[in-house]
Amino acid sequence: MNPMPAAMQRFRAIWISDTHLGTTGCQAARLLEFLRRTESDYLYLVGDIIDGWQLRRRWYWHQSHNDVVQKILRKARKGTEVIYIPGNHDEAAGHFLDLAFGGITIRREQVHRTALGLRLLVIHGDLFDGVVQHAKWLAYLGDWLYTLTLRLNHHFNALRARLGLPYWSLAQFLKHKVKNAVSYISAFEEALAAEARSRGFDGVVCGHIHKAEIREIDGILYCNDGDWVESLTALVETTAGELKIVHWHDFLTAAVLDEPDEETDAHPDRERRLVAAG
Fold first, then answer.
1. Dihedral sign, CA of 235, 198, 86, 52?
2. Does residue 273 lie in a domain region?
3. Which of 4, 68, 139, 196 could make an S-S bridge to 201, C-beta 3.0–4.6 Å?
């Protein structure tokens, strides 16, 4: 067997969600780089992978979005078990539950057992969002406002880049500072944890609210893998069974730091450092 490239990271499982392919806000090129640098036994696509809401309003499909889809299909062909769990933005995929396309199986939800024996419920999470379920017009309005915020954020950060300042997320700032948003996120997390507890799971993995986090809620492990619009995060399970949130920027930094120095003939098999938060 040929060894993996120096910058490749091997995980037991990877969870990604809220990529929103089909929108201008999707960070497809960075997602593609992440997929190229990782291998896993399981790859979970935890909803809102393709944004049907936005595509119905305005068709947008960059070549990089196609490249992401092709890369995922290639992983499935090479033996990665790929599970696609639709969210609210790609709800049309829910009509094909339990079917497989190109090696990708579509499920409403999935049970994942970690190497340490934890049973995790994997679900997008929109079913526990009262706005999405009971006031869809408000959800559409919120989606439009979020898209507008991302556009403003793009121009604002273009100016910051010219001034030599680092990236700053307006949407994430508003989520963390606006009282109602903080309350909404907390209620969402507690609802998911309660659902997992009531069904006898040790934890839950979800997406939907674009806020990556790992924390314990009343004895239940709550994991959110974040998004690929702003935070650029994924949830991973290491080969030892540890769950971590991986940030794309830190991941690339770690990968570069770990590449062997050709001049000093550094050991290629040394343990790869993974900068992560969780």
1. negative
2. no
3. 196
Q: What is the mean pLDDT of residues 107-123?
A: 97
Domain range for 18 is 9-256
262 within some domain: no
pLDDT above 80: residue 105: yes
**In total, how many domains does the chain have?**
1
- pLDDT tens for 48-70 read 999 988 888 889 999 999 999 99
**CATH code, domain carrying 239:** 3.60.21.10
DSSP string spanning 115-146? TT--EEEE---GGG-HHHHH-HHHHHHHHHHH
Inside any domain, residue 269? no
Size (the chain), residues: 278
pTM (predicted TM-score): 0.74
pLDDT bracket for residue 176 (50, 70, 90): low
Residue 155 CA to residue 65 CA, distance in Å, equals 22
